[in-house]
Amino acid sequence: SKNTSVPSWDFYEEAAEEDVPGYKVETARSGRAKCTVCKKNSGKAAIADSAAAEASTAIVASTASRSSSRAKKSASSAVVKQNDTTVIGLGEVRVGSFDKMAGSYGRWHHLECWRVPKKVQNGLTDPSDEESCLRDLLSMEEVLLTGLAAMDEEDQMTFVRHVINSDHWAGNRKRKAGAASGPSKAKSA
User: Fold this and answer.
1) Could you tell me if 12 and 140 are in contact, meaning their C-beta atoms sit under 8 angstroms apart?
2) Residue 13 belongs to what H/E stretch?
3) Which distant-in-sequence residues (6+ apart) come within 8 Å of 107 by Cβ?
4) 132: number of CA atoms within 13 Å, CB side?
5) How many whole angstroms from its chain centre is CA 36?
6) What angle in degrees, to the nearest 10, is found between the helix axes of 69-83 and 36-63?
7) d(CA 86, CA 98)
8) Distance CA 107, CA 27 (A)
9) Residue ranges of the chain with per-residue pLDDT less than 50
10) Which helix or strand (DSSP H or E) is residue 130 part of?
């Protein structure tokens, strides 16, 4: 019988080919990083949000007209950050990937925007069990994933719950209704 309590040797062999873990999970330290998925998807919505932020900034600036220019600038940037859904908030769980050119982690994602890569999925022995999933993910520490061991228990479990939800798995997207059925067939009368 196959031992399913430990990921396969192939999993570790493939993961060990990388010099640095490919993914880093952590809580956002500054609240300044932007989610690459949200930035990509914002497109035209960003233009509308920008106009709304400018209007809000004008209101804040007019109420702060007696304040210093530094206070006005600070108030203005606070309004923009508050309305900017691409920003990963201070203390939120985020996931980044290793950028070989820069030699550091970047391309940060909100946890809910991150698609769990096949490499991580393949290292899970029982994706339906939170405890075994946490154990599996911690065994990936410094091999495929880094930062999980340094997080508090609540944030670790938030990450685990995201990973075990197959709706968040890469390569597991649902096709549009027309695309899944192939070419359309003529209706019979």
Assistant:
1) no
2) helix 9-16
3) 36, 96, 97, 99
4) 12
5) 8
6) 140
7) 20
8) 14
9) 1, 44, 57-80, 178-189
10) helix 130-139
Q: What is the pLDDT of residue 130?
A: 97
User: Residue 132: its pLDDT value, please?
Assistant: 97
DSSP 91: T
Token pair recorded at residue 72 = 């006005």
Give the SS3 label for residue 47.
helix
End-to-end CA distance of the chain: 55
Residue with tokens 């304040």: 67
- Determine the pLDDT at residue 54: 57
pLDDT at res. 171 = 86
Which amino acid is present at 45?
Answer: A
Where do we find the tokens 């609540």?
A: 154
Supply the pLDDT for residue 62.
46
Interacting residues of 123 by C-beta distance below 8 A, sequence separation 6+: 7, 11, 15, 136, 137, 139, 140, 144
Question: How many of the other CB atoms lie within 10 Å of CB of 57?
Answer: 19
Helix axes 130-139, 153-164, angle to 10 degrees: 100
Looking at residue 189, what is its pLDDT?
43
Residue 92's contacts (CB-CB under 8 Å, 6 or more residues apart) are: 27, 28, 110, 111
